Every structure is written in structure tokens, then in C-alpha cells.
Amino acid sequence: MQIEATGLGKRFQRDWIFRGLTRAFRPGSATAVLGPNGAGKSTLLNTIAGQLLPTEGALAYTLSGRPVAVEDVPQHLAYAAPYLELLEELTLLELLRFHTQFKPLQAGVSLERLIDIMYLEKGRHQLVREFSSGMKQRLKLGLALYAAAPLLLLDEPTTNLDATGVAWYQEHVEATRAGRTLLLSSNVPAEYSFCDEELLVTDFQTGKR
């Protein structure tokens, strides 16, 4: 999916989070959205995802040369963030079966294969609420990374992961990024070292331009 942001700005009450952002995000690109905590990285991702409406400017989406309406963006989007909730009253297998009805997996990836990829074999019939924070984060990432979605947004992807989990993330984000438009919000170099483009949110804040 290609995304064209033109003069994009978002304000909450009287405070501008970012303003004057003009940028193209193209298929096959991986962009690190950088800035200190509270700078507006997550707000920018949520605006690009169509979950927040911009205060000014415009976003245009195209897929295979055809325009995509903002209300249709979610069906082409995979998103992983620490604040996104899982259906914790389901078992892992139940959750995967439910989730993939709406967000199918990439070709050749079965539910059992995804469970193996996430190293969650022993939790197959366990309630998700009983998972550790690291297991839940691998689950969120696995669902996003292996979704059949051309737009991938990752917000602080290694939150709650130990060193082994970080290595797992690095391996699988590299394995699944080809051909997708990827935006990644972070201030941890290990999360975005593979990105070929960077966007510093503070460059688009009033008083700093």
C-alpha cells in the first residue's frame, strides 16, 4: 500500500502534536518513526492508520494502483502495540481461530505453524490471560507480522520482550517485511535497525520547525 501524507497535522484542543508533515510511504519501505516518549509517535501511527482523523492536511491511500478509502484501510492493515488488547478469556487456539476470520494469515502459514513460530506450543489450550507479558507480546507481534496485510504498523514492538524475544522479533520482522509498507514507532535502536527511512516527529512540531 502507498500512503501520501500532505500537510498532515493533528491537534488535541489547542496543542499541536505534529504539523506540516508531507511524506510518501511506499510498498517495500520500512520507516522508523522516532522521538522521545510523549512526542506523538503513537498519535502519528494512529492517524496514518485512519483511527484518528487529522486536524489538517490529507492522507491518500492506494493499493495496486487503486485508491483506498480511509474507512477501508483497516482491512488492509496489521497493527501491533502494547496498548492493544487481546481477547484474554479465550484459549490461544480459540483466539487464533477467531482473529483469522477477520485478518487471514499469509499464504502457507497455518494456525499450527503460527503457534510454532511464536514458540507457544505449550500454551495452545491455555487461556491467554494466563500468559506472561512476553508471551502476550509475541502473540500480538505474530498476528501482525504474519497477517496477509500490505500495511504493517508496529508501536514499540519489543515492549515486555527479553533478549531472546528481541532476537525473535528481529528475525521475524525481517522475514515478513518484503513488499509491505512498514512504519515502526520506537526510540530503541534494536527495534528499528533494519529500517531504511527515518521520520523524527519533533521535526514537525510547532516551535521546532
From TrEMBL:
Matching SUPFAM superfamilies: P-loop containing nucleoside triphosphate hydrolases
Domain ABC transporter as annotated: residue spans: 3-209
Signal peptide: none
GO molecular function: ATP binding; ATP hydrolysis activity
Alphabetical list of Pfam families matching this protein: ABC_tran (PF00005)
Keyword ATP-binding: yes
Gene3D superfamilies tied to this protein: P-loop containing nucleotide triphosphate hydrolases
InterPro entries on file: AAA+_ATPase, ABC_transporter-like_ATP-bd, ABC_transporter-like_CS, ABC_Transporter_VariousFunc, P-loop_NTPase
Keyword line: ATP-binding, Nucleotide-binding, Transport
Descriptive protein name: ATP-binding cassette domain-containing protein
Species this protein is from: Hymenobacter properus
